[in-house]
Each structure stands twice: as C-alpha cells, then as structure tokens.
Amino acid sequence: MNRVSQFDKKVANNVAHTRRRLEISVEDIAEFLYVDASFVRSVECYDKKYNLRHLYLIMALFMKADDSITLDSLMPKCSENIIKILQNDTKSKIKA
User: Full-prediction pTM beyond 0.90?
Assistant: First the structure.
C-alpha cells in the first residue's frame, strides 16, 4: 500500500478546498472518476491519495465550473519547503 506523504496531503487539501469553493460534491467527483465516493472521502481524510490520472480528471471536472482551473491550481505552490518535503520523501523510499 502506498504511503500518503505530506505532499499528497497538500494536494488533497487543495482539491478539497477547490471542490468546496466550486460547490462540487464528493459524489460528483467520484462519479466523474468512476470510483466510489468512499475513495474520495478517504483521500480527504489522508487514508488514500490521488494519482495523476485522478488529478487530470478532477481538473477537467473543475474546469467545467471555472475555466481558470489548471493542474497547477491543484498542486502546492513550489517553495523550498515543498522541495525538501519531496526530497525527504524520495530519500525515505530509497532507504526502505
């Protein structure tokens, strides 16, 4: 099972925040992704994580409500802190 990293949590927060702002339900996302609503809830509770395919489809769904949404909108802003989080996560996987 894939571990949910700090980066994955930041992505989940950005998706959940945008979903609520656009008034899109968990069920709407689940239906668009062809997954159970429990999967989306699990991501929002940090038990599971979205993959790139999920994020691309979520972006497409969000763009129907706000065409200014991009994949970048769903990602954490690039910063030294995010880079260190990603590097440390990669380092811990290599050691495992």
Answer: no
Domain span at residue 17? 6-95
DSSP H helical segments within the chain, as ranges?
6-21, 26-33, 37-44, 52-65, 71-74, 80-95
| Three-class secondary structure of residue 90 per DSSP | helix
Total count of domains within the chain: 1
Question: What's the pLDDT tens digit per position in 43-96?
Answer: 999 999 999 999 999 999 999 999 999 999 999 988 898 888 888 877 666 655
| DSSP states along 22-36 | TT--HHHHHHHHTS-
Assess if residue 1 is contained within a domain.
no
CATH number of the domain enclosing 81: 1.10.260.40
